[in-house]
Amino acid sequence: MHSTQNVTKKRILTGDRPTSPLHIGHLVGSLQNRVALQHSYETFVLLADVQAMTDNFADPQKVRQNVYEVMLDYLAVGLDPSAVTFMIQSQIPEIAELTVFFLNLVTVSHLRQNPTVKAEIAQKGFGQSVPAGFFVYPVSQAADITAFGAHLVPVGDDQLPMIEQTREIVRRFNSLYAPVLTEPKELLSAVPRLMGLDGEAKMSKSLGNAIFLGDSADKVAQKVMGMYTDPHHLRASDQGRVEGNPVFAYLDAFDPDKAALEAMKEHYRRGGLGDVKVKKHLLEVLEGVLAPIRARRAEYAQDRGAVQQLLRQGTARGRAEAAQTMQEARQAMGLDYFSEPADR
Ligand code: ATP
Ligand code: MG
After folding, report:
1. Would the pTM count as exceeding 0.90?
2. Which InterPro entries match (predicted)?
């Protein structure tokens, strides 16, 4: 499985919060890049259940169920279990340990400025009652990334502040103690943020504006036919707006025939092209992408034992990596009391 030649490969770490199954925003934002790079990088994928708990602590059952759902999505999109290490965050306590030391290297006022966390606090309506665990999740994400010595992190653009925060922590740690941690870079895709069915800036699990990878063909059709478009494009003969129109945003992301798509956009702008026609075309394009994913997902769902086994093996392998990093981090800080020689 993991041949020794992997030692020379650079590493990818990325992951998802198991708060719901994954959607087509995840696919274009991050999953496609992971699949494309899984054989050229040593790839670690983290099911971030501890992070999911920071705003779902009252519903751990939901988090637990979605670990399995997200794992099915991974396998369905073509992440190859012979190349990828799949891990459950809560079963790797070294990540939590590293987080505790990292918390000393950031200030509360700096954390307050994180634009993604700020937006999420507003969106979730936390007001002044932000759980402390949620507030500091960018720090735990820095531990996720560095625990596995990742060089590259394929993410959507909402994660840029987290990667920057990680680099700052790594520099701080390395200069204060010893240079043992790796500074990561982000990898953005061509579609770093897919908008929602409702025209909201971000398709999101928690906003009810998503097409999920496991949605049935009927469900996808229902969602596409109900999509928000240009509100001023009432009749087919009206001139239409392409910009900010999610139907065209999805075609941009998924339609391989760019020349035909440009012609379609022109027609829509000019007037004479109805929403229903464009939506039917989008549906065909999406089905081309989703049908094989849906079929593979259903296949893996039949063998829960095998999926469980992949998670168990991956988590054990990941834990060994994180333990190694933690050992080096303790040594760097001089907190390795019981390592040889005993009289250090
Ligand atoms: P939650 O609402 O629970 O935070 P989420 O949809 O934001 O869910 P995450 O698990 O937080 O999903 O993010 C997983 C990865 O997918 C991240 O790299 C994130 O940037 C990316 N991602 C999420 N939504 C989109 C989107 N609409 N377009 C592109 N990338 C996305
Ligand atoms: Mg998110």
Report:
1. yes
2. aa-tRNA-synth_Ic, Rossmann-like_a/b/a_fold, Trp-tRNA-ligase, Trp-tRNA_synthetase
State residue 341's pLDDT score: 65
Q: What per-residue confidence (pLDDT) applies to 344?
A: 52
CA atoms within 13 A on the CB side of 242: 16
167 lines ligand 1 (CB under 6 A): no
Task: Check pocket membership of 42 for ligand 1, CB cut-off 6 A.
Answer: no
* Positions in the chain short of pLDDT 70: 1-7, 341-344
69 Cβ below 6 A of ligand 1: no
Ligand 1 centroid–CA 156 distance in Å is: 6
According to DSSP, residue 85 is labeled E
Q: Can you tell me the distance from the alpha carbon of 158 to that of 152, in angstroms, rounded to the nearest whole number?
A: 16
pLDDT score at 1: 45
* Angstrom distance (rounded) from CA 242 to CA 124: 30
Q: Which of 30, 51, 162 to mutate to test the pocket of ligand 1 (most atoms within 8 A of CB)?
A: 30
3-state SS class at 15: strand
Residue 320 pLDDT:
98
The domains located in the chain, with CATH, are: 2-195+303-333 (3.40.50.620), 217-298 (1.10.240.10)
Give the C-alpha separation, 340 to 119, whole Å.
Answer: 48
